[in-house]
Design a protein that fits this description.
The protein is α/β, with parallel strands linked by helices. It has a single domain, classed as Rossmann fold, CATH 3.40.50. The protein has six helices and five strands, in the order βαβαβαβαβαα. β2, α2 and β3 form a beta-alpha-beta unit. The structure holds adenosine-5'-diphosphate. The site of adenosine-5'-diphosphate (ADP) has 18 residues, from α1, β4 and α5.
């Protein structure tokens, strides 16, 4: 079978910071898509101040995926369904770590589907050893001076050390 058009996946999130779990999902997505657009949401859904600016989060993603030309990392503002169309992506990909992710992800997908009936969502599970990882836990461990090297790429680790080292100073 010959395909005339490439399949593009949109992977949105806050990526504050990108963890090995996010990385696993983005690389895994290349098994079902030709290209992945990793999109950092500029509009926070929960009222919380991020540890890294939008620009920093995009830069960290670009560093992590520098070896993979099929993964593009950008920022976006506003409604996901609107951006999905703008980016001409075929579907949204999200990671499911455990049953606890399911309720929120399912609700979000249905809400978006309500706004755009064409929007498709695909859920991938990470490698088992990454299924406990979340960016918020990684931030928490870093804040308390713990070793986060098993959870993030070396370039992210360096930025985290700088950021959370500063807070101790
Ligand atoms: P987090 O929940 O870590 O703060 P985001 O809000 O940036 O991350 O989430 C973006 C997407 O990545 C979500 O679909 C989330 O479920 C998924 N995700 C986050 N961490 C992991 C992980 N360790 N394994 C699989 N998916 C993950």
């Amino acid at each position: 079978m010959t395909r005339t058009r490439e399949i593009v996946a949109l992977y949105p999130g806050s990526f504050d910071p990108v963890t090995l779990g996010h990385e696993d999902i983005a690389r895994r997505t290349l098994r079902v898509a030709d290209r992945v657009v990793v999109a950092v949401a500029g509009t926070a859904t929960q009222a919380k101040r991020p540890a890294f600016t939008l620009e920093e989060r995009v830069e960290m993603l670009q560093e992590v995926f520098a070896d993979e030309p099929r993964i593009e990392c950008i920022a976006f503002q506003g409604l996901l369904v609107r951006f999905l169309r703008e980016a001409k992506a075929d579907f949204v990909v999200r990671g499911l770590r455990a049953v606890s992710d399911f309720e929120y992800e399912f609700q979000m997908a249905q809400m978006n589907r309500e706004m755009d009936p064409e929007a498709e969502f695909i859920f991938l599970t990470p490698d088992a050893h990454l299924s406990f990882l979340s960016a918020s836990l990684v931030r928490e461990v870093a804040r308390l001076g713990g070793d986060i090297s098993p959870f993030v790429s070396p370039s992210v680790l360096r930025r985290m050390e700088r950021r959370f080292g500063e807070e101790d100073a």
